[in-house]
Amino acid sequence: MTDKLYEFSTLFEYKYENVNPKGNYVQRFQSKNRKITSNRPDYELPNNSIQTSKYTLINFIPKQLYEQFSKLANIYFVIIGALQMIPEVSISSGVPTIYLPLSFIILISGAKDFYEDYKRRKSDNEENRQPILTYDGYKFVTIPSSSLYVGQIIKVNQDEVIPADILILRSSEQKGICYVETKSLDGETNLKQKNVHIDLLQTYISDDCFGQEDKRIILKYQAPTPYLYQFIGETTTSQQKVSAMNFNNFILRGCNLRNVKYVFGLVTYTGKDTKIIMNSTIARSKRSKLEQQMQKFILIIFLTQLILCIIASIVYAISFYNKRNLLSYLDIESFDNEYNIAYNFFVRFGNWILIFTNFVPISLLVTLEMVKFIQGKFMTLDDRLNQPKVQSSNLNEELGQVEHIFSDKTGTLTCNIMEFKQIIIGNQNYGDVIENQEDYLSNDEILSYPQVTNVDFRDKKLIEAIQDQNHFMHKQVKDCLIMLSICHTVIADQKDNKLIYNATSPDELALLNFARFVGFEFLGSDENGIKRVRFNNEILEFQLLEVFEFTSQRKRQSILVQIRNSKEIILYSKGADSILLSETKLSQKELQSEDYHNLENKLQEYGKVGLRTLVLCKRIIDIQTYQEWNKRYQEAAQSLENREERMQTLQDELEKNYEILGATAIEDKLQQNVADTISAIKQAGIKVWVLTGDKIETAINIGYSCQLLTNELVQHVIDEKMESLVVEKLNETIGLISKQPHNQHALIISGDALLHSLKPHIRKNMIQIGESCNVVLCCRVSPKQKQDVVTLIRNQKKNVCTLAIGDGANDVNMITAAHVGVGIRGVEGQQASRAADYSVQEFQELRRLLFYHGRECYRRNSTLVCYTFYKNILVVLPQFWYGILSMYSAQSLYDTFIYQLFNILYAALPIMIYGVFDEEHDADILTENTQDNYYEQGPQGKLFNLKIFLFWVFQGLWQTSIICFFPTFCISSNFIDDNGYMQHLWAQGTMIFGLVIVVCNLKVLIFSNVYTPALLGSISFSMISYLISWIILDNISQAEAYVVLESLFATPNFHFGNILVIVTIVAIDSAINLKLRKMMIASKKKNQPIYQQPEKNDQVIKVINRANTGFAFNYLDVDELENQEKIELYNLENQVVPENFNNNNIY
């Protein structure tokens, strides 16, 4: 007895070593496998608090200042402010006036960051303060979630959120079953079943036993990982019984507990170490092409500024030196630095840098960011779109420049709402009937059958075979339908006395509802794992032994059951024909039989009409074989090393020597207006690539249905598996395309061939073909391959804008890899929409998003950026022209205070109003895009390029010359007040500055297409605010330009000069804009492409006929999410090929 007590005490008396003493967070807390004891918290590990916010009240100011001054533009203006404080250089009496607008801009950016971070912090606080029931050694007490530590035992009640990653110890259900909803993790609303391990179920036999010494357990488990669907661990009880734990015994933070009263769990991961937090990665930062070009133009402006400053400084230094003997009235001594050319150069260079400060537009980034933000809000308020979400408004104009669209098929082009259509059993095909046939179930007859969803089946022949026990197909049909009714992971639930199925995929629901429709009703599974099916008022019971889950590598799902009456053990499998047909136990004679060929032919026919197929198989296993296999399988399941690989090997060992039961066909219908949308996208000149996991025949058929493929396209199919054959086929395709330059082409390539085509030494050929094709269909591709295709185009064609659109978790990589990602909020969950820059409800909404919102955002934002450069040239350059008269002495024309308000108050609002409200054409006309190709201006970069930028610069040059010289030469000679004195320098500068404000505001009117009250009001506000500013300054005796405005308004020549300059500039500018518009219209008509009838080619309408049909099974691709780098080709070597099969691909 003493020895047992000693062993019992030493078992749990060990020191926690779950933390490394040194290193960063990952090295300290996430690099070591863990060992914990229940009810013994490890306080060295992080607690359960989370922080998604960036700032605290203490670090907000220093962090914000660091972020703001990590931007080169802000550093530039800080340097400018420092120069303004140097007396010899300053043009503002040593006052750093630039800091006023800089502070305003930093304040606006900081306020925006503070608001966004405040929302995050508020959410964090709500999460961290959630009350949690935890065991303190005596009873369950309530603590905040942030105080939870690894090793504690918690209680979670029904409908509550799981606060940390936990190992389930006990459930309110007698057999330890519980159900969770993982909506917050993967978007799935279907319930998932979790189970208490049988050994833990026997350990924790009551709700009040957790404080007993002999109920403690030791849990050894893996270090924190981001893999959502993986957990490996083992428990040791006080009796030293070791048990292996897996993901089925594990619940993640963020799940909701459903359908059970409560569960008890052992906390394993907390805070940053929980899987949901580890998967909350920051998305890759994206910048639009316009912003990238804008940075180049800013650099050009800055270099121009330096050149002008150098020229002005050199001219002044040389002129002053040459005329030094004529400047005695300046009282400059010969030994002063003023007589030093180098000194004069550098001082004047500093002066001119300060005068030209606004050459680099200080307000551009903030203005553009604010306009984009408001544009994004208007997108979300568009009642023609179904509540779109804008998560990256900085990419608005990128929507108007898309040249390549990469699209998923299932759930994106199709509805992802499956309807069961047909089934093959033995050599009989059921479901291929049409209305008015004798075997067609009428609408009235359908009412006598169970009312289910996702089924469109009208064939009486199958019903007769089920009901007539003497029918020659009865046994085969019954066997096949029993298989459909139990080979799944669907959870049955009773709600309001109705049986509800919670399926993990729409395919599963369609198959199970079909079985229910024809009389095989799945009733659910109990806590002992017994599956029950009702047929003809008889309850069939099956003991569940094992479930082999579907993965993209396995391409099948299997279930191992034992019939309770006969004790017979059967393995049922459903999945890809390319996998299951190769694992049948048919003899060579049976492989060549009519039944087998009938099955293959039907599978091909299903594929060609766009139906998704599954092959159904079974294998009867004798008890001795099962027992020997099960012993090894349980050992593999208990192992901590290579558990997954060992279990997979043993599953493969059992999944062979199948007997074919039949095959199913399910239809996934196209979404509304998909065909019109794709046709419009192609007409706009955008290339469409569809990346799908479906087989080639299915993808081709869907392609025709949605007008992706047409009879005018020459199809090039590449489906080879060996690298040498792929290279040969690519070269052959290039040759065929070059011989038919006037035809339009489509490339259809399989995942096998694509894997080779993406290799570095082959991808050049793939790019060349892709550039020549209007449409590309990539079939049988994995999520990683989708990403690789998008990345290939991005890297090889730097100036091309790509857009990826998808609806499932397997589309996330593709969406994040593209320049613009669009997610569809569909049946497969919300992961795609969360990871995307924009999300919509249906594919058809992409048309309005691109053709209206994208096109208009590109047009407005292009004009906004160019206009901002223009107005800054307009305000700065008159001072350079004035230098001709002042020997470039760097004399400023403007009042310093008024000058700094130019980009904040006098010329900021109208262009923002333009950027939000202006419309060139009606929204519906742009969305239709049929009267003209309005969209092409974006992909071709017609509105924002070097030529356009230089044109705006040119406009600034000639307009500033008029603004400067008209008042100087035409008016100044008679610029006389009532006392006969000529007005001084500030009067001339004030008049010039006023003209700049009027001209730049009227410029917005000239290029605007609509004159909204907001636009007219903003222009009026800008001019009135300038006038008010001068009235205030005019009455401040300390101001530089005291009483200038009063004397100016009393001078008639001032008003005449203003009218003369404004009329001249507006007239010339309007004439230039009118001429340019006419030239653009004429050029467009001249360059309008002439439609050429494609060369007649019979191959255009042919589709390759292949033995391999593949499969379509819409499951969340768990293993692809967890191991994106692993690409395992599906097996095609063992495909059975009919003798008369012709392997020549069609071109």
TrEMBL record:
Its main location: membrane. It is found in: Endomembrane system; Membrane. It catalyses: ATP + H2O + phospholipidSide 1 = ADP + phosphate + phospholipidSide 2. InterPro entries: ATPase_P-typ_P_site, ATPase_P-type_domA, P-type_ATPase_IV, P-type_ATPase_N, P_typ_ATPase, P_typ_ATPase_c, P_typ_ATPase_HD_dom. Keywords: ATP-binding, Coiled coil, Magnesium, Membrane, Metal-binding, Nucleotide-binding, Translocase, Transmembrane, Transmembrane helix. Residues 43-98 form the P-type ATPase N-terminal domain. Its cofactor is Mg(2+). Mg(2+) binds at D408, T410, D807, D811. The chain crosses the membrane at residues 98-115, 297-321, 341-368, 864-885, 897-917, 949-969, 981-1002, 1014-1033, 1053-1076. The active site is at D408 (4-aspartylphosphate intermediate). GO terms for molecular function: ATP binding; ATP hydrolysis activity; ATPase-coupled intramembrane lipid transporter activity; magnesium ion binding. It comes from the Eukaryota. Pfam families: Cation_ATPase, E1-E2_ATPase, PhoLip_ATPase_C, PhoLip_ATPase_N. Its EC number is 7.6.2.1. Belongs to the cation transport ATPase (P-type) (TC 3.A.3) family. Type IV subfamily. This is Phospholipid-transporting ATPase.
